[in-house]
Each structure stands twice: as structure tokens, then as C-alpha cells.
Write a structure and sequence with these properties.
- The complex is a heterodimer of chains A (376) and B (278).
- Chain A has 13 helices and 16 strands.
- Chain A has 376 residues and is of the alpha+beta class.
- Chain A has a domain of 207 residues.
- In chain A, the strands form four sheets. Chain A has an eight-stranded mixed beta sheet, with helices on both faces. A four-stranded antiparallel beta sheet of chain A has the order 7-6-14-13, with no helix packed on it. In chain A, strands 4-5 form a two-stranded antiparallel ribbon.
- In chain A, strand 9, helix 5 and strand 10 form a beta-alpha-beta unit.
- The longest helix of chain A is centred in the C-terminal third of the chain and has 20 residues.
- Chain A starts with a strand and ends in a 9-residue tail after the last helix.
- With 278 residues, chain B is an alpha/beta fold.
- Chain B folds into two domains: 90 residues, Elongation Factor Tu (Ef-tu), domain 3; 123 residues, Rossmann fold.
- Chain B is 19% helix and 31% strand.
- Chain B contains five helices and 15 strands.
- In chain B, strand 8, helix 3 and strand 9 form a beta-alpha-beta unit.
- Chain B is globular, with a radius of gyration of 18 Å.
- The termini of chain B are far apart.
- The interface between A and B is large, with 56 and 43 residues.
- Bound molecules: flavin-adenine dinucleotide (FAD), iron/sulfur cluster (2 copies) and FE2/S2 (inorganic) cluster.
- One iron/sulfur cluster binds next to helix 10 of chain A.
Amino acid sequence: MDGEAILEYTDLSQLLSVLHGYGYTVIGPTLRDGAIVYDEVETLADFPVGYTDVQDAGTYRVARRTDDAVFGYTVGPHSYKQFLHPAVVSLWEATRTDGEMTIRTTPAPGAKYAFLGARSCELHALAVQDRVLYQGAYPDPVYAAVRESLFIVAVNCAHAGGTCFCVSMGTGPHATSGFDLSLTEVQGEGAHYFVVEVGSERGGEIFRQVPHRAANADESAAAERVVAEVAGQMGRTLDTDDLRDMLYRNLEHPRWEEIERRCLSCGNCTLVCPTCFCTTVNDVTDLSGQHAERVRTWDSCFTADFSYIHGGSVRASVRSRYRQWMTHKLASWIDQFGTAGCVGCGRCVTWCPVGIDITEEVRGIRLTDGALSGQP
Amino acid sequence: MIERTDPWIPESYHIVKTWREIPDTFTMELKPTDGREIPRFASGQFNMLYVFGVGEIPVSISGDPSQRGILTHTTRAVGAVSRALCDLKEGAVVGVRGPYGSHWPVAEAMGKDVVIAAGGLGLAPLRSAVREIVAARERFGKVSVLYGARTVEDILFRRELEGWRARFDLDVYVTVDHADAAWRGSVGVVTRFVARAAFNPEQVVAMVCGPEVMMRYTARELEKCGVVDDAIYLSMERNMKCAVGLCGHCQFQQFFVCKDGPVFAYHRVKSLLAKGEI
Ligand SMILES: Cc1cc2nc3c(=O)[nH]c(=O)nc-3n(C[C@H](O)[C@H](O)[C@H](O)COP(=O)(O)OP(=O)(O)OC[C@H]3O[C@@H](n4cnc5c(N)ncnc54)[C@H](O)[C@@H]3O)c2cc1C
Ligand code: SF4
Ligand code: SF4
Ligand code: FES
């Protein structure tokens, strides 16, 4: 298919049925317990049509819109990592008989997901996790199994959140690659449609089965306007100039102690972050002692156990844990994986119970670049 | 779908022999249960050892890399997994993943003097290097082994150390932190032997392993003697859950100790070590 196409608002459910017909479990935004989260969606009625979210440091609230926008909000507390890199997963099972041990990979559930409504920051977060869990010397088998069958329908944001800073991170708001299909929602003067861009052969094959027509120049221009306007509405900004080296030379900056006085070391920021990948494992046995299993769970660099070695935690202080987290996101990640570990989604800012804002903390350090704390 | 080997799955090994070295430390020899050779490894690398149903921990290989028939590990019982490992008897089965990580610069040290400095259990991963050097002794210049233990009872591989000391081509210094009157050897920290050891500071490679403070002081002492920081190597220890760069636990600022280390040239980690809580 050449050029952009128009999918009418009323035909969005057709796209859902075609995806279901291809055997995909469709994951989309849905309203639950006062937040817009990712879950299985069956029909258009499952989407938070006519809702938006209001976000700021430490606060999140869902509100009614005055229109019927399907995607009129930004990202919530969930990210796609819960599907690709589950919070709890069994890695293998072992049995012991007569002093012999047999270990087998736990069979994967074999889910085939279509993510419908993936924002540009989410696509960049996926690309970041790909580098960490999929493209290294030892690809993670759990991640690989889900990743390889993934179908992605991106959505260009029509509204920026109060804690968003994707423009600063170069990760949005316009989804430019990494999708099978992308949608831009346009409303006005009685019209309500999506301008669709096809990003892959598979995307084209699926879209051909959904009712659509070619977009005219006005419609394409309307979609471009939506994206351009959003870029100017970012709730936050982060100056990335010289960021890595600036942080590396400020590992002993007094700001870390000042943050320590506010940070609860609760790990919320790591749980909501779409790129945080750290895990721990638990080895367990059944009552007979002959069957064992290794279970992997998300972990957080904010816990004391995380850096425990015989004799104590390497990072005993909260200041060193926050420093580890932030400098990993914005500095060491670049050395490790050739890209920053932050995509500017703003989740850590919104979901921090005390409203610690990564962009503010960086600003605070930059302001007194080179200052030294009295602490060792 | 693409066939891949699962990096989380341990191989099954039998304990062929296990013995107590010092009160809390055991050496065990292992063989794959299917009779294969052990994977090739280099001195300084480590394996993840799994005790059935209990857990998995990183342990350095303390054996000789030229011996392909047997895998040797020396472990101190300090917590749940290491204690369970040390309690295992001959014939018991152990899971092994590895070898992982970087190794001692034994090849780079050829034609040069060598200083090996170990503190406590740090002698275990360095034993592999010493054995390798001894096996090709003529290829190296002067070789010194400096070893410090807490007490006389804590001296690891005592018989082997005596064997090395008896050779004319190895200078061996052993010291303890605390000793009673019966000990006729040195008392004090291992770092003070650095200045006494015979080596050409411009033609030497130093390999250091022990508690982090010991490594820092030893490296500083070597620098004082004129050794440049990229000729000094040390082996870092961090919490490890995967050993393959996936779990994030072993991070040391930009490094993953499991894949970029554990052996690092000192100049790469020097400024980080000075900061603490990294
Ligand atoms: C590269 C490397 C090589 C090592 N080589 C040896 C060796 O040759 N011989 C030896 O006796 N020990 C070695 N250790 C240390 C050994 O891994 C720990 O003593 C062991 O993990 C303690 O586990 P535990 O369950 O017995 O103790 P606990 O105190 O119950 O530990 C709980 C958990 O914390 C973590 N942990 C605790 N201490 C350490 C530690 N020092 N390093 C890393 N993780 C730790 C482990 O994940 C462990 O499962 C090495 C560590 C590393 C990183
Ligand atoms: S660090 Fe914060 S803003 Fe950056 S990707 Fe993670 S949650 Fe989003
Ligand atoms: S920064 Fe906020 S969310 Fe993160 S650990 Fe500290 S208090 Fe919790
Ligand atoms: S031990 Fe898991 S990343 Fe290094």
C-alpha cells in the first residue's frame, strides 16, 4: 500500500477483529481502578473512550474529556515490560533421582501479543529492552519468545502529559519506526478518523483486511499538525547536553544527600519504568525435595539486598541507591548499550510517592556542577 | 522459532572429591555427569554453582586450566548456599554454569616479572594463575607470591604455599594479621611486602585479589614502587544472580562485573574504587 490511509473511528473494531482472527491476544489501554492500564481488549468498548489523565510529580488522576477521543491520554503505570519481561516467571524445573539431576526450561505460555496503542516512547523503550535482553551475547529466552511474535500498532500522541519529556530524550512524540501500523487520531467538524501509516509487510497484510480509504492531502496535514502541536506541549524538559560526563563528574555532588532526605527507597520508580530490567531469582523445592524450580522476579536497585555481598550491602545508603538508579539511566547505560536508559515517559516522576522528579534532580546537579559533598 | 541454548540452565556435575582446607573452607573436584571434558577456561574465570533447591552462587575456578578432566572450586561457607555446597558429600550432584568473565593476564605477563598478591580467600582464583605460571616458569621473569591471612589457621593451601616456597624460582611471602607466639612467620598486612618483593617496576604485571580495601592499598603500594596502573589487575566481587549480563545485580557504574570483569586493569576502576558505594 502506498501513502497514508484513513481508518474511520467506527472501523477501529474491525482492526481488532482481524488481529483476533490472526490469533493475537490484543493488549490495549483500558480503565481500571482509576488508572489507564494495559490489559486484554476485545472490543472498542474496552478502551477509555472520552477519558484523559492528568499527571504531575507524585499525582495521577483520570478525567472526562469533552470529546470521544480513543487515545486522548498518555502512559499510565503499566508498560509493555510486564508482557515481554514478566514480573514473575519460572525459568526452569529440575528433578533429582538417584543422585542425577535433570533440568528443563519451563515451557513458555506461548502468548502471541498485538500491542494496540503503543506510544513513541514505548517503542523506544522496547528498542532499549531489545538491546539489553535480546541483542546481547546471551538473549533472554523468555523475552525472545514474546518479542519474536509481537505485532505493534503505534499511536501518535495527540496530547502530552504533565510529566512527559520525550522531546528532550529524542524518543517522541512522533512514532517513526518499530511498528507494524501507526495511527494518528484526528477529530473535528464532525469527523473522527485515524490516519494510518503501514510500517511493515505484516502490517500491510493485516490492514488490507480492514475497511479503509486513501488519505487526501488535508487529512495527512491534519495528522501532521497533531504531532507538531504535541511536541510543543511537553510537561517537562531535560537538558541532555554533556549529560553522561556531567553526571560522572558529579558522583560526589551534595545533591545526592539532599535527595536522600526525600527518597523513601520504595523502588516505585524502577517498577513503573519501561526500561528497568533488573531481576532476582529464587530457587525453591517441593516437599519431597526431589523437584526444584527457579523463579525469576523483578528486582530493584533500591533494595538493600540488591547489592548485598557477604558482610553487607555495597550500596548501604539511600543516596548511593538513587545515584545508581539515575546515573544508570542517564549515563552508564550509554556506555553499556549505546543508548540512554531513559525514554522520557515521565512515569517515575508521576508515580514517585514523594514526587521526586528526575528532570529537576538533574537540573539541580547541573546548576552547581562540580560541587563536592563533605561525605566520603 | 530460532533454536537457542538457554543461558539460565546449569549442567549437571558430580562431586568426585571434597576436602576441608581450613575450618570454614572446602575444595571440591567435579566432573560432568555425562563424562564429557569440562569447558575450556582461563585463570580468574568463575562458574555459577547450583545446590539443588537451595540456590546458586558465583565461585572462582581454583584449578589448573590445563587440566580438562576435572573442575576445581574452593569455597568458604559464609551463608545459605555456600554452606550447603560445603556440606555436600562425594557423589552428590551440583549444577554448573560457566565459565564466565574476564581472566588474569597470564599471557601478557610472559617475559615480565610477576607479582601475585592475595588476601584471604583471594588466593583461590590466583592459584590457577600461579599453577599456570609455574608450569611455564622459564617464560616469566622474577615471580613473587605475597599472601596475607587473618590468622595462622586461616592460611589457605598451606602445603602448596610451602611447596612454592621451596622452589628457588618463586619468592613467597606469607603474613597473618594476628598470631600467637608459636607462629614464627610475619605478622602484619600483606601490602608491606610489596616494597620488599624483587621486580622491575617497568617490566612487571601485578595480579591482586582479596577484600576491596586490601586490593586498593596493594595497588597504591605498587604504584608507589613505580608500577603503572595499567600493569596492575584486580578481581572485583559484586552480587550476581545471572552471570550473563541480564539481571543487573553486578553493576559497578558502567561495568557489569560478570562480563566486563571480574578481572579489571586497575586504571579502569581506580577512580570508582576511591568513591565508595558504587
Ligand atoms: C566473581 C566472584 C568469584 C567468587 N569466588 C569465590 C570463591 O572462589 N570462593 C568463595 O568462597 N566465594 C567466592 N565468591 C563469593 C561467593 O559468591 C559468596 O560467598 C556467596 O555468594 C555467598 O552466598 P551464600 O548464599 O552462601 O551467602 P549469603 O550471605 O546467604 O548470601 C545471600 C546472597 O547474596 C549474594 N552474595 C553474598 N555474598 C556475596 C559475595 N561475596 N559475592 C557475590 N554475591 C554474594 C548471593 O547472591 C547469595 O546467594 C565469589 C564471588 C564473585 C562475585
Ligand atoms: S527513568 Fe523515568 S522517565 Fe525515564 S523511561 Fe524510566 S520511568 Fe520513564
Ligand atoms: S525516587 Fe521516589 S519512587 Fe524512586 S525509590 Fe525514591 S521515593 Fe520511591
Ligand atoms: S550477574 Fe547478572 S548482570 Fe552481572
